[in-house]
Amino acid sequence: MEAFTLSPDFGYVVLVVFATVILLQWLGIQVVMARKKYEVSYPRMYSDNDDRFNCVQRAHQNTLEVYPTYLVLQIFGGLYAPKLGALCGLIWIAGRVAYAYGYYTGDPEKRNRGAFGYLGLLTLLICTVMFGLSLIGFI
Fold it and tell me: Which of 19, 22, 30, 117 has its CB surrounded by the most CB atoms within 10 Å?
């Protein structure tokens, strides 16, 4: 059995994961502010009267839906290539911000402005597969 040594560069990955916590908090605050603005009281998740609130809510909810996948790929991909993994995480975060701002316009089609974030996610997927293959000695 071999010992696994964590690269000091993995610190970049840890900092990017921390940045995603800030991202999630920011998205949540946007929903709280939209609740007040569009008068959508708790526990209602969506507005029957104003889709602009629904767009803010969906930007947050969709990010929460994809976050577990992102997080697994960020950690495992970051173990394989920490600096590349951290860069990909920053791309994913920037994509989520662009996605949210596009959604906040009230035109759901504009959320696609953040699609570039999937380049980061796809690269993390590849790094994760490479990490797994390297662990089993395939590469």
Answer: 117
